[in-house]
Amino acid sequence: MIKIIDYGIGNIQAFLNVYKRLGISADVARSVDDIESATHLVLPGVGAFDQAMALFNDSGLREGIEKRVFEERIPIIGICVGMQMLATSSEEGKHVWFRLDSWSGSHIQQQYRFKKSSNATYGME
């Protein structure tokens, strides 16, 4: 079952709603025991990198996630700041997260220029 990691930040209910609408079984992981039954993990996040890392490190979930992802090789996806947390480092904060064997990268702060398109939506250049 897909488990959405609840470490005190993120839009957990939005993920549950999407999976329910798609007919996919998903639940929330708030403890290491919850993570044990996961087939896939979703690491959501909203906000600043340092705040997210501090909450995550205080959650007690890190060791269980590392075991499942690195030793048992279950898939994990990070969304928004959750993806930044999967990188080796981030320019946005001072914390260092996982060092993934198969994927390594850094979150680099960038400034984007937005342009108005002809259909009244906005896009990045």
UniProtKB/TrEMBL annotation:
One Pfam family cited in the UniProt record for this chain: GATase
Catalytic activity: L-glutamine + H2O = L-glutamate + NH4(+); 5-[(5-phospho-1-deoxy-D-ribulos-1-ylimino)methylamino]-1-(5-phospho-beta-D-ribosyl)imidazole-4-carboxamide + L-glutamine = D-erythro-1-(imidazol-4-yl)glycerol 3-phosphate + 5-amino-1-(5-phospho-beta-D-ribosyl)imidazole-4-carboxamide + L-glutamate + H(+)
Occurrences of domain Glutamine amidotransferase (ranges): 4-92
E.C. no: 3.5.1.2, 4.3.2.10
Pathway of action: Amino-acid biosynthesis; L-histidine biosynthesis; L-histidine from 5-phospho-alpha-D-ribose 1-diphosphate: step 5/9
Source taxon at top rank: Bacteria
Keywords assigned by UniProt, alphabetized: Amino-acid biosynthesis, Glutamine amidotransferase, Glycosyltransferase, Histidine biosynthesis, Hydrolase, Lyase, Transferase
InterPro entries: Class_I_gatase-like, GATASE, Imidazole-glycPsynth_HisH
Subunit structure: Heterodimer of HisH and HisF.
Name by which UniProt lists this protein: Imidazole glycerol phosphate synthase subunit HisH
